[in-house]
Amino acid sequence: MRTIIEPFRIKAVEPIRMTTRDERAGLIAAADYNLFALHSDDVLIDLLTDSGTSAMSARQQAALMSGDESYAGSPSFFRFEAAVKDLMPFKYVIPTHQGRAAEAILFSILGGAGKFIPSNTHFDTTRGNIESTGAEAADLVIAEGLDPTSLHPFKGNMDLDRLEAYLAQHGAAVPCVMITVTNNAGGGQPVSLENIRATAKIAKAHGKPFIIDGCRFAENAYFIKMREPGQEGRSVKDIVRDMFADADGMTMSAKKDAFANIGGWLALNDDDLAQAARNRLILTEGFPTYGGLAGRDLDAIAQGLVEIIDEDYLRYRLRSMAYIGERLEAMGVPIVRPTGGHAVFIDARRLLPHIPPKEYPGQALAVALYLEGGIRSCEIGTVMFGLKPDGTEVEAPMDLVRMAFPRRVYTQSHADYIVEVFEEIVARKDALKGMKITWQPTAMRHFTAKFAPL
Length: 454
Ligand code: F0G
Description:
Elements: H1 21-30, E1 45-46, H2 58-65, H3 75-87, E2 92-96, H4 99-110, E3 116-119, H5 124-131, E4 136-139, H6 160-170, E5 177-180, H7 193-205, E6 210-213, H8 217-227, H9 236-245, E7 249-253, E8 264-268, H10 271-284, H11 295-308, H12 311-330, E9 343-347, H13 348-351, H14 361-373, E10 375-376, E11 378-380, H15 382-385, E12 400-404, H16 412-427, E13 435-439, E14 450-453
Parallel strand pairs: 1-10, 3-4, 5-6, 6-7
Antiparallel strand pairs: 2-8, 7-8, 9-12, 11-12, 13-14
Helix pairs in contact: 1-14, 2-11, 3-11, 4-5, 4-10, 8-9, 8-12, 12-16, 14-16
């Protein structure tokens, strides 16, 4: 059969409140054309993020009931710890309430003024947590990773020559080497097993701990299975284990590839580092057997980790992204190619060349998607990255719109609907106008800025 069906049945449903275009015109104006200001029940298809928005399975819901809420030594923690170690055999697994809490703890120990931390591309919370300690974060992804038209199979790969040069330049001031799988900020692009191993080898040769940001590890592993020579006959579980085998630690948001609505962890091998992290955890998150989570959350994660490596699920997951990408390309919508694991990124600057970057083509497209179809997406461009700390504005390298897909939530008819909304927009795209900012905060302006159409 050609159709890769959703490999699940639906047992509980959440109604979508239908809205008309007229209603949405009033709602988006009242939100000052910022999609973060919308009430989510005014959204038909919410593609703002794949984080924490997954549908839990019947088994996860059942696992919630076995959650044990003891302050110390809860069996939920030991189930969680065993599930993590089954995939990523680190010595210490430290639960946190979400990924950025793991990052904050790690960099409160490894960061600090005068330090330099390289990665393929740091996610913005990772960069923020590094920079807030006074350290510098560097993105050393391969050149193909920055070219939306390149069809390189592993556009998330680390540029190994640049990493060597960076380590030679900064030497003792580098406390660790990181890599993000998949590379979210670069379009959800995977990193090959060969590149992970080569990065680990370089880090080891320089005596640096190698830390993986593993948020979307299962999607990355399935890309390796599909695309990396020699990996096609292997199980995703074995590939996952190999991905982490040479690492000294990981940060994780369980809100992505653990099918959980909240949660994360920091895993480490080094005794002293783990001890320091636990001390910090007790101050900021909680006792080491719950770390900012309820026992029931730990059980939901443990079950989620069993389900996420299901290869029928992963095939369906990556195929759904590719399906939407293919249909958009067929109608001439420029996207970041090839489609990544969790999202489809549209190149708004190329779709709307008549709107200059400082009139925010990404925001204009995101607003049009809401107006025409009730779809909520996210601008990743000059709105998000254009405001410098000194208050000046620059053009971001690209003006993209990200449609990130919650896991197991939307079906193929939702995908077809999204494609139809694009057909409407493409037919009238030359009439779309840019936006201006009428108010903005001094940092992270995309969350709260107010806009008006030009
Ligand atoms: N690392 C990566 C690669 C991420 O994508 C995220 C979150 C984090 C770390 C932080 O995890 O949200 O649990 O604190 N990404 C979300 C997104 C927010 O929409 O891409 P968190």
